[in-house]
Amino acid sequence: MKKVIIIDDEPLARSIVKEYLAFYHQIKLVEECNDGFEGVKAIQQHKPDLVFLDIQMPKINGFEMLELIDDPPPVIFTTAFDEFAIRAFETHAVDYLLKPFSRERFSKAVDKWLDQQGPAAQQKAATDSLLESTAHSPSQTERIVVKSTGRIKIIPLREIHYLEAADDYVKIFTAEGNYLKKKTMNYFEGVLDPKLFVRTHRSYIVNVQQITRIDAYEKDNQMAILTSGVKIPVSKTGYVKIKSVLGI
Asked: Which H or E run contains 12?
């Protein structure tokens, strides 16, 4: 028996998926969720084989929710028209249902999933590629969503002081504390606004609005002093980038 979860803030949309699922006796609906917060908990609890996931939800959207899960399950997205998202789906061969969808279109998506279930590593790679692509969407570039001590934290970009590499994670520093995100420095360098965030060093990305001064440190290197008093190393290349952004 395949376990399925529905995550959608619209009761009508959830009821339609439930109605169409009733024709699949090998599939069991284990939980319905009204938002991404509930969805994260449900996925961790049930370890579903498939998730029907809406994108545009309050609190956190579907993509942000997936980023919070270490091993996301296969997903069939259910969404209203979103040109950016649909281009990403088509590029990375992730199936989606464009609302309103018919029972025939629903069945096509589910049958495709039932027929083409590949190795878990392959499915995860497809989801990771999708999230890398959608990270450049305007709706994804104004904040970062993280898990902290079992709770979900939404961090507006303006509140970030700097980011630091930490093995397989990146540590995000704010006035309230620091948070870990399982991403790479190259990922953040690619998605953060280059007019606001500069990679000063292979291990650091800094919000230039937090810099109070830059001091000489050693040959060809500088040290950025932030408003918090934290000192961030600045390589020769990083110094050129900062001067360019600051117009000096």
From this structure: helix 11-21
Q: What pLDDT is stored for residue 6 in this prediction?
A: 98
Do the beta carbons of residue 207 and residue 197 sit within 8 Å?
yes
Burial class (CB in 10 A: 0-12, 13-18, 19+), 242: buried
Does the global pTM surpass 0.70? yes
For residue 184, the one-letter residue type is T
Q: What pLDDT was estimated at residue 248?
A: 76
How far apart, in whole angstroms, are the C-alpha atoms of residue 66 and residue 150?
15
Q: Which domains does the chain have, with CATH numbers?
A: 2-139 (3.40.50.2300), 143-246 (2.40.50.1020)
Ranges of beta strands (E only) in the chain are 2-7, 27-33, 50-54, 75-79, 96-98, 143-148, 151-156, 160-166, 169-174, 177-181, 197-201, 204-207, 211-218, 221-226, 231-234
Tell me how far the alpha carbon of residue 3 is from its chain's centroid. 24
Is 171 in contact with 178 (CB distance < 8 Å)?
yes
Give dist(CA 97, CA 125) in Å, integer: 21
pLDDT at 135: 64
Cα–Cα distance, 59 to 185 (Å, whole number) = 26
What percentage of residues in the chain have a pLDDT greater than 70?
88
DSSP string, 93-160: T--EEESS--HHHHHHHHHHHHH----HHHHHHHHHHHHHHHTTSGGGSSEEEEEETTEEEEEEGGGE
